[in-house]
What does this fold into?
Amino acid sequence: LAVERALYWSLKNSLKRRRPQDFVPGFRSLVTASDQFSFPSGHSSAAFLLATVFAVVYGGPLIALYLWAAGVALSRILLGVHFPGDTVAGACMGGGVAMLCAAHLGLLV
It folds into this structure.
């Protein structure tokens, strides 16, 4: 999680992509985002990181884990605080960091 959060924060604050309501005229999000920039989605990244860690460590209901993570990502779009690409990037980043860390720790067979 520390690796993912550091990467997420660095990317978000260096790329500085505006959120949908700041970019699309007349658009209003349903919630107020906790920070200013949208790319990548931190919620999506954390959800896919968690789903991937559980899948690697415990196995089990992979479909349920990834459906939950996808639901988190979709909710960020529906709430109007992210573009679809923000959540896709977050999902790839979270899952990728989890897989890289698992490989580094020898958890992948």
